[in-house]
Design brief:
With about 300 residues, this protein is mostly helical. The chain has one domain: Rhopdopsin 7-helix transmembrane proteins, CATH 1.20.1070. About 75% of the residues lie in helices and about 5% in strands. The chain has helices at about 20-50, 55-85, 90-125, 130, 135-155, 155-160, 175-180, 190-220, 225-260, 265-290, 295-305, and strands at about 10, 90, 170. It has a 3-stranded mixed β-sheet. α1 packs parallel to α10, α3 runs antiparallel to α9 and α8 (about 190-220) packs antiparallel against α9. The radius of gyration is 21 Å and the shape is globular.
Length: about 300
Amino acid sequence: MLLLNHSSFILVGIPGLESQHSWLSVPFSSMFLAILLGNGAILFLVATQPTLHTPMYLLLALLMTADIISTLAFVPKTLCIFWLKDRDIAANVCFTQMFFIHGTSVFRSALLVAMAFDRFVAVCEPLRYSTILSHSLVGRLGLMALAKGVILILPMPLLLQRLTFCQRVIPHTYCDHMAVVKMACSHTRPNRIYGLFVVLLVVGLDLLLIGFSYALILQAVVRLNSRDATFKALNTCSAHLFVILVTYVPALFSSIAHRIGRHIPPHAHILLANLYLLLPSMLNPIIYGIKMKEMRKRVAKCLCRRTS
């Protein structure tokens, strides 16, 4: 049966665990609320506290915005599948969801590169920090990250529209690019090649730039004579390093599983793909809230005002 471009797909949810969807909705909805509350709280603090209008916190606010958009793009539909058995999704809605999910992932990765540059300047050029990282430069970095997400991901749904689909049922909780490509019965090599190109460009190049920044940071730290200065410099980068780990490790596993993980159970693969989207968004506010002294001070000040 052929599926025309104006028709719809069916999202299965988590294949093999359909009977457990009502139970799985509990951690999904809990993480959803935690992401909205945690990221929203940090966005509110950065927006309302003038002392937090620094490059580091402005980039952090952009990262939190990307996390919220990514979560809103797929979790509500996933919960509709779990709770209401509402599995239908229009093709244009599916492609739009795909654009926002993958686009925010590219945007987030580009922001992590910008934040690595921010940490490099903070450690290696502390006296020139405010001069180098002006608000206008942060704005340009944010626009470049956004443009990268749009330019790289927009061709994906456009290339999909030329395909003929002979399957409607997508064994996933959201419209992942490779999951939708596998539904096609026409020639998909351009789609697969472009998808792999985006992964290699985003993950490979961004990790290379981040690694280069931290190599320079490590070189500067080694030259420090004071143990306290060394500890302070490393502590400056710790939150960013934690975020890099929770962002790229699940992303790499998910991408590899899509292409070579034929023996991985479908439910394990889908859970990993959801974890790749949800885990960084949930942990980022916790990591930055714990590691950043200024953020903790502002939270405590706000709490004191409410209790007094």
